[in-house]
Design a protein that fits this description.
heterodimer, A: about 300 residues, mainly alpha, globular, B: about 240 residues, alpha/beta, Rossmann fold, six-stranded mixed sheet, four-stranded antiparallel sheet, 8 helices, 10 strands, about 25% strand
Chain lengths: ~300, ~240
């Protein structure tokens, strides 16, 4: 059981990593980016391309891919999301849904339906493990992913609270009009936030490729995990994302222990329980949640 | 050259014309009080000067430069700071963080966090408190301090006494007197006529988006302003042009 808990916690680090960009974009720009998973897969494919065609190992390739993802995030916000947000809350969701379809199909057209992995390019790291007291074996890559998630979340927290740019992003997320009145360029702050979110997506995509296989249509599953972890942890809360990721992963691990096909179901059940508790505690009540009429029917 | 010139400014809220062809100017070091009933267009006028509201026509000139099309954050860089109605603090942030945000424009000057805390001593023990947890007076002091942190040439104050107890308003106005003595140029929107007339060198009374009365505060009686406030005063019947 202890082994399952440790593996679950470490897997939670990956989920936190993929959820933090989604949560960050939602908290700053109030945009639910449905292309989040597809962009992570795009990053994984970019690293795979660099490794297989140009023999650039994934960890070195990250320098190129993360810069590229930051540029994609900036451009996405400036040329697509900012414009679609003017059309109401629904339009950015539809726009990112369309973007996900475009990315998935362009990847399929370029790379075919074969599954790929970055594992062959990182040597023994993909399967090496440490033996911990009590007969526990923990994968080195899983520990690196978890440590990266903690460092990233801590770094983001420090950036947002200790730097002028971070304060500008927080001010923009709280009240963009007033942010402008104190000298903050809200457009720039949003574009910067999107660039940061895409860097985290790029990292998540890299670790997705290293720890598992991916194909052009793997984005939807990653989006689902990110969404579940973000909701469990409380969308917009950075450390909540880590807790959400760990809870999701533990539920999946527990589900897999109960039944061979219980991995995904365990996560979904945890997500739904937390979602219902959150909505119920928001004051809607179960009747309101289900949109049931409270009065007598005529 | 006037520090601020507003020329035939028209501002709309949808189909409603909130400001209808208003013109006036403010010299360096002056304090202009904008008074008028609710819905007279004072706040809209102030927000249009700050760039938070687009003008339908007319011009706002600041230090001789036309501000048409200049966004609000650029206007802060040029030296205009607004203390908005209702304070509009970032409630999730601390007092210090709110003040530091005022430095975003990067204008050189003497105002820093320590000086704001010296000017508003009631904020000192609340430095690390979240703005949402402050009293009304502390919030108002933070909002004024945040605007001062941008080292503005022109300070726009919108209803600084709104919702505050008389004692707290006294404290806020004592701070304003200090700023005025330092030579800060101020445009002040105020409902309290006595207070407005006591701190200002010039007064404009607005009625239904237009200037109903304008003149030097010393030359305009409270009675004249009250009549203009309620639309009983004919334009040009008293005071001097702004």
């Amino acid at each position: 059981m202890m082994n399952q808990i440790v593996q679950g916690v470490l897997l939670g680090g990956y989920y936190a990593l993929i959820a933090c960009g989604l949560s960050f974009m939602f908290s700053v720009m109030r945009i639910i980016n449905l292309a989040h998973g597809s962009l992570a897969v795009l990053s994984a494919f970019a690293l795979w391309l660099l490794a297989s065609r140009f023999h650039i190992p994934p960890f070195y390739g990250l320098a190129i891919v993360l810069a590229l993802m930051a540029a994609i995030g900036w451009a996405l916000q400036r040329f697509l999301l900012e414009r679609s947000a003017r059309g109401g809350a629904l339009l950015p969701i539809l726009t990112t849904f369309g973007l996900a379809i475009v990315i998935d199909n362009v990847l399929f057209e370029q790379f075919g339906a074969d599954t790929r992995s970055l594992a062959p390019f990182i040597g023994r790291l993909s399967y090496d493990s440490w033996e911990w007291p009590g007969g526990l074996y923990v994968g080195k890559l899983a520990v690196i992913i978890f440590a990266t998630a903690v460092v990233l979340l801590g770094g983001l927290q420090l950036f947002l609270t200790r730097t002028g740019l971070g304060r500008s992003i927080r001010a923009t997320s709280e009240d963009p009009d007033t942010a402008g009145l104190v000298g903050v360029d809200a457009r720039r702050a949003n574009a910067l936030a999107a660039a940061i979110a895409m860097v985290t997506v790029g990292l998540a995509g890299a670790f997705l490729g290293m720890r598992a296989t991916f194909d052009p249509y793997a984005g939807a599953t990653q989006l689902l995990f990110a969404f579940e972890a973000a909701v469990i942890g409380g969308a917009g809360s950075l450390w909540g994302t880590l807790i959400g990721g760990i809870v999701l992963a533990l539920a999946q691990t527990l589900g897999a222990k109960i039944h061979p096909q219980g991995f995904l179901i365990g996560g979904h059940v945890a997500f739904l329980i937390v979602l219902f508790i959150r909505l119920y505690m928001s004051g809607l009540g179960l009747r309101g949640l289900l949109s049931l009429p409270t009065g007598k029917t005529p | 050259m006037s520090l601020l010139s507003v020329e035939d400014l028209v501002v709309r809220h949808g189909l409603l014309q909130a400001v209808r062809g208003v013109s006036f100017s403010v010299e360096r070091g002056e304090t202009l009080a904008l008074v008028g009933a609710n819905g007279a267009g004072k706040t809209t006028l102030l927000r249009a000067i700050a760039g938070a509201h687009q003008a339908a026509s007319g011009r706002v000139l600041f230090d001789g430069a036309d501000l048409s099309g200049v966004p609000s954050h650029e206007r802060v860089r040029k030296g205009i700071a607004l203390v908005p109605e209702g304070r509009r603090l970032f409630v999730q942030m601390t007092v210090e963080e709110n003040l530091l945000l005022g430095r975003t424009a990067g204008r050189p000057g003497d105002w820093d966090v320590e000086r704001v805390l010296e000017t508003f001593p009631n904020l000192k023990p609340r430095r690390h408190a979240k703005a949402g947890h402050l009293s009304g007076g502390e919030q108002q002091a933070t909002a004024i301090g945040r605007a001062l942190m941008s080292n503005p040439d022109l300070l726009l104050l919108d209803e600084v006494s709104l919702g505050l107890s008389p004692l707290v308003v006294d404290r806020v106005y004592a701070s304003l007197h200090g700023l005025i003595n330092l030579g800060t140029t101020i445009v002040l929107v105020e409902q309290d006529l006595d207070r407005a007339l006591s701190v200002s060198s010039k007064v404009i009374c607005m009625l239904e988006g237009r200037i109903a009365l304008a003149g030097a505060s010393a030359n305009v009686s409270r009675d004249e302003v009250t009549k203009a406030y309620f639309g009983l005063h004919r334009k040009g019947a008293g005071g001097v042009p702004a």
